[in-house]
Design brief:
heterodimer; A: mainly alpha; MetI-like fold; 11 helices; B: alpha/beta; 9 helices; globular; binds adenosine-5'-triphosphate; binds magnesium ion
Chain lengths: ~260, ~280
Amino acid sequence: MTRRRWLVALEIAVPVALVAAWWMSSSGSSSIYFPSLHQIMDRFWANWVETRFASDVLPSLKRLLIGYIVACVVGVGGGLVLGLSRIARRLTEPLVHFFRSIPSAALLPFAILLFGLGDAMKVFIIGFVSLWPILLNTTSGVDDTDEVVVQTTDVYRIKGPRRLFMVVLPAASPHIIAGMRTSLSLAIIVMIISEMVGSTNGIGYFTLQAQRGFAVADMWSGIVLLGLLGYIFNLAFTFTERRILRWYHASRAGAAAT
Amino acid sequence: MTQILTVSALGKTYGRDQNAHVALADIEFEVRRGEFVSVVGPSGCGKTTLLKCISGLLKPSSGRVELHGQPVLEPPTGMALVFQDYNRSLYPWLTVEKNVALPLEARGLDSRTRRQRVHEALDAVGLEHTKRRRPYQLSGGMQQRVAIARALAYRPEILLMDEPFASIDAQTRAELEDLTLRTRDQFGITVLFVTHDIDEAVYLADRIVVLTPPPAGVKEIVTCDLPRPRDQIQTKELAQFASLRGYVYRAVTKSRETPEGSGPSEQLHVEAGVE
Ligand SMILES: Nc1ncnc2c1ncn2[C@@H]1O[C@H](COP(=O)(O)OP(=O)(O)OP(=O)(O)O)[C@@H](O)[C@H]1O
Ligand SMILES: [Mg+2]
């Protein structure tokens, strides 16, 4: 317990120390590229809290969440079908691997062609890129379900939605959630890229515009916000995962102990 | 008594060509309604394979299994199976209570009946107090008792059990043996019971199917007409128990000396707890 407390203390102390170091070493900086942290925080507050929250942060988050949630639903749904049906898996395998291998940036021209520069283009590309890790992980999670679990479910003739929600999905959930985690980082990256390429608002758009206008402190405020967002999403994700997969981690810990 | 289960010329081969492994060869026996049949045989001889073919989980390579005269092609209604791998057979994401209740839900029982049965079954295996826990919070023996409770709560017409008491201490094991016998009497359940333990086989059964070493065939079927109800002390003190036990023991050991026997390393586990 004390060891744990130490670790938690360190976990907090190290970033605080680093920020403090940054603050001090950059104070009074005259470099164009590395303004003082004080300046950056000023701009951060002015931009993200005072003026641009509704006009840039919310649109970014909205596109991110819509694209990501659609990808989760389609990915889990499709993955279930592919995981349960060997034939469907066989038929779609080359296609799935082709699509998921396309780098997201290469798809941008096509997405723009299809949807123009609006929200639809961004939601599409965020969703498209997030889809594959979730789909593939769901498929393998369902397919890898313990044979005895499957046989138990067969013997007791547990079928239909009950089987799906009480057995198949929970059994695959460790894989599914791992896929969702991968997709979330991809979604954030793609959100930024899509906003940099063609947009009139959003955090990525603002950050690039700031750089182009030599508003370096503004640019940094965008970078800091993106870092923070990524960190917060990850934290929220880890927190939910721990609750949903408690049985999984506990069972594995037990299996390792015996 | 009429027969409920017929196994005829049942064969199972895993893999094919050079990798082919004949697990079952020409198994033949039948089980009558309400009967308690034990299956004994050396480790690895194909007992689990046999139960999985009977339950419709595995497709036999040859021969057939019939329940009420109908060929078994998928797990039939009214059948329960207690798996040897109890720790993989419980759903780790569900509580103990929910694990027992899920098959009852699938059977369409209303929630009052379900709660009642779950309570009774968990109480009978001495685990009522763990109903809100999850399988990983229980010891191996407790997990197996949950799996047994799940099967008993289901009140199957025919119950298949694959070395269900192997990881359970002697005292609890005796209690569970008696519980199984009582439950079967109460609900007229037919039981097919695989075990390593010859004492257990004799104590429980009406008849004992002795399997040969791999590929498993039926070596002999021993009738075990000890008086019922059986009693852990009195039944085991009977001279008839000792002679049956000796007889089965010799049948099993002799069965290892057939030409295709796998040699002296193939041990029969007379004691419990060895997998
Ligand atoms: N899925 C499988 N694929 C290939 N061979 C298998 C498979 N399952 C079992 N076998 C083989 O079939 C034989 C019989 O296995 P089985 O599990 O039925 O034996 P058992 O009598 O239940 O053994 P134990 O007493 O140890 O539980 C073994 O030699 C085993 O290696
Ligand atoms: Mg076995």
